[in-house]
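U., I forgot to send this yesterday:
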Amino acid sequence: MLELQALRYQPATAAEAVLNGLDLTLKPGEPALVAGRSGSGKTTLMELICGLATPSGGTIRWQGQPLNARQRRWLCGLVFQFPERHFLGLSVGQELKLGQRRLPAEKLEAVLHQVGLGSLSLQQAPERLSGGQQRRLALAVQLVRDPAVLLLDEPTAGLDWSVRQEVLQLLAQLSRDRVLLVVTHEPELFRGVIDRGWLLEQGALRPLPALLTML
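Result:
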């Protein structure tokens, strides 16, 4: 279980806090969503959870134990919005092995199969993949590490309807045995896949059960 307690973040140059005393509990098998407008702090929230930023106050706990930034980086996998812009490998295989050179081919193939890319060659260039395949590859890059917490920033952005549905089905599968949190400005797209949601507004969270069921 991942717990955020009184989480606060205020950059040194900002007059007001971006996040101001957030409380949030996330459990494996219960995918969750945080909605909000651009600039509301959604991406900042994910960066804090995964150890890429340091809170100004509050605590982040896993299974009841407080975690430092390094521990959170090991715990979490983060997929940025438009992850294809961050690919560094010249091939699918190289991309999957970044930072983990000794991974056997069997492990890589198993992860690709898990995200629906089982027929993809490890020699394929990432930039030659379709948009949906690139999103799946970005997920595979994180799943190679087997993170207990998977964080997704606008995972359906820029995808057409059919590909978007495929990605949503994949997210439902991936959330079964891990904590999964999506941030988005279009919560209605996740209806039927994610039932728990909050709105991030003016640095605070409020539940969105009605929005997720009505939109």
